[in-house]
Amino acid sequence: MAGSEKQEWSHKELKARIDRLKKAEKELGELNAPRDVFGTETESIRAKLKSVPQVEEVEQELEALKQKVAKYQASLRETATAEERARRALETAAIEIEGANSSGLEVSEAEELLAQARDVLNRKDYRLAVGYATRAADLAAQARRTAKPQVIVELDVENYSPGEWKAVDLGVVNQGKAQAQAVELRFSPEVEVKWLAPIARLDAGAREVLKIGLKPRDAGDIPLDVEVSYKDMAGRGYSGVQRFWLKVSKALKVEQTVADVGLGVGLLPQLENYTLERKIGSGGFADVYLGQDKEGQTVALKIPRLSQYETIEAKDFLSEAELWSKLSKLKEPYIVELYEYGTAPYPWIAMEYMEGGALRERMDRLECKDCLEIAMKLMEALHSAHHHGVIHRDIKPENVLFDNQNTPKLTDWGLGKVLLDASRSSIGFRGTLAYSAPEQLAGSRFGIVDWRTDIYQMGMLVYELLTGQLPFAGAEAGTAITRILNDPPPPPSELNSQVPHELDSAVLRATAKRKEDRFQSMDAFMDCLKEVLKGL
């Protein structure tokens, strides 16, 4: 009877049950239960949504499904968290191992553990992956903490002359298994030494070459003690002393010049293996000729031009050649290449012919973006030169030349000297006054000439590129020097409204009076210009 009889509800009760079914249908739709996981439960509930008598069953099943879906989603979140934790652990381990490898450390056990961690990660065993990766990171970090650096120096002891400065390469080598930091050198007083600033860091197995100047006082076998002090990554200090015996004897000098040979007016110099065609330029103490070598390659030949009025000695020309030759071996794309040089019948240099002319000739046709791109290429060349112990110290538009592909390159390294050899007060001032840094004019007040002098001059070059003028040019020499030493330059944007204000701060920092207030490396200056260039 009960199975065949219809259950009857009042109108109010019937409406209430229908509303409950509608609510259940809405909640089921909002639940978004994955069909591949909860398809059976979902279809069961949907089949009963039109049955008023089954509203209680619908609600019970729906509540049970909600709980299952909640547990499933929590499990997914937990799995995602575990996977993220595992991936971070693997990333940390990889960084530690890379750091150990870059320091020359052998960490094969850590590398094997990291490989195992990656394998179990792919199998979704995240907890085990974290364990392997954490252990790998610990082993690599421990290797870096316990490994020790061992720094030695290498020095050529031959061919020194008493009372004369010699530019030499000092090799600083880390033979240990860990990075050395704050590497400093101290020299015994038997020999005068001019050398670079401390090395901030030296990786295991790495070798840095410093350009130093040595001047023995006397002839003979002269002892030179070099004390090397440094720290490891944990701050522990180390030191050691090496003794070198310098072979000091009087040396011959090459002093002959074109003037000594006595060429007549209008005659071209003669060089073996080269044919000179015409003069194409003159520098402070040399003439430049267009010519060809015996293979027919077009070259530019630089030959000294000295007279009784010149203040630069002939031997400086040979120093330039040696220095420039070393830079050419770096194959830097923005340094004019030196092919060959010699001393007979007079000193000469054969170098890359730059048919595109000098930067000075193009300055009025350059946009702000072009100026920065040219400057950054020159900075790359200077950064590399500084890394090898060489400064230019005569940066100006006339010394920036272009090849036939419009690539800018720095030339005339005639004022480029070993950093501390360049700081000798006895040589006096050399360079272009309008581009001169304060330390080139008043060393007793502003300190020695060093790599930051090039940073100042690059700042001035960028200044002139952006504004078409230099802040201290045009005045008489005495007035110009006073302004260089004391007056701040006006911001470039005051002279050219198209210059972004971000460039003002970069240029003014590069041209600060005190070296300590400038960018402390050429790449730092370059990075600043890159950021400005992104907004142009």
Structure description:
By secondary structure, the chain is an alpha+beta fold. The chain has four domains: 26-146; 151-248, Immunoglobulins (Immunoglobulin-like); 258-352, Phosphorylase Kinase, domain 1 (2-Layer Sandwich), CATH 3.30.200.20; 359-534, Transferase(Phosphotransferase) domain 1 (Transferase(Phosphotransferase), domain 1, Orthogonal Bundle). The protein is 41% helix and 19% strand. It is built from 15 helices and 15 strands. The strands form four sheets. The protein has a five-stranded antiparallel beta sheet, with helices on one face. Strands 1-2-6-4 form a four-stranded antiparallel beta sheet, with no helix packed on it. Strands 5-3-7-8 form a four-stranded antiparallel beta sheet, with no helix packed on it. Helix 1 (11-31) runs parallel beside helix 3, helix 4 packs antiparallel against helix 5 and helix 14 runs antiparallel to helix 15. Residues 1-5, 251-257, 259-266, 307-312 and 415-431 have low confidence and may be disordered.
